[in-house]
User: Fold this.
Amino acid sequence: MNNTPSLSQALQERQHTIQRLFANPVRLLAPMEGLTDPLMRQILTQIATDLGRPYDWSVSEFIRVTQHVLPAHVFYKYVPELHHDAKTASGTPIHIQLLGSEAQLMAENAAYACELGAPAIDINFGCPAKTVNSHRGGSVLLDEPEVMYEIISAVRQAVPAHLPVSAKIRLGYTDTSRMDDIKAAIAASGADWLTIHARTKTQGYKPPAYWDKIQNFNTLDIPVIANGEIWNSEHAQNCMAQSGTTHLMLGRGAVTRPDLIAQLDTDSSQNNSSQNYRNLENTATLLWQDLITHQIKFLEGAAKSDVVLVGRYKQWLAMLTKGYSEAKTVWDDIKREKNKAVIIKALQASVA
Assistant:
């Protein structure tokens, strides 16, 4: 007896999955190369869960597809959560993001990722990094909507029909002149939802984000997720109003204020922040002393050398200085320190 679901059953299952995922406003942790690695995902998703507002899911850092189907160990390196039902220790699902320009190779790697347990595949058309773009990956493909269509379509056909395929884009490469072509490519490709960073590649990460331009994509018959320059609750409210979508992906703001997700849906009239995105000390949802334990766990993270951990921690601490005055004091004390134990003692002393 054949227990394999029919195509129609698989399509119905996927539709039910999408309806379930987007039944309420979704809140996602963004993929950020060199920042939201497995250790950072573990820490941030645990904090969100502890605060009572877990992320609906997170997306992995992009996995670069170039010349062949990647071996399993590469997928496990970027997404060790595959060993645990593709979820972090706190139970947050992790979708796998791929980046590349060859449709067939992208499709084959996507299919293999699903064999390894990926619950969904996301395709990166947003990375602005020069090295990535120069090798025809990421946001440079926004100037080639026909290639975007080929990639998404090939991945959609290769991935099991019951599993979702999504795409992440920016508003354009050098400008927004091809937005209609990009939208048409997405519409025809079979993508199940779309995440939009509300800036072009050229605009990088420089404020402001142009949330209102996301409105142009709301005629698509799929959910749209807004991303970019959301640093506090007021920004989230403004983003939703201007973009016309209630679904948000959080990036640097979530690293700077790990409690941001718990603040998002509060009444913006109670938010004391100014319009200056650097003024983030607006709530006491997660006090500095509550964050110390998580920072020490980060510094004691497995599978990385002390040199790497200290470097990565300093990157995080520098970002935390925008959200916590105490972080600035610690930063001033340890910015040249290389000994992990000394850094941990400085952290503990900051709340003594």
The mean pLDDT is 92. Residues 7-21 form the longest helix (15 residues). The two ends are 66 Å apart (CA to CA).
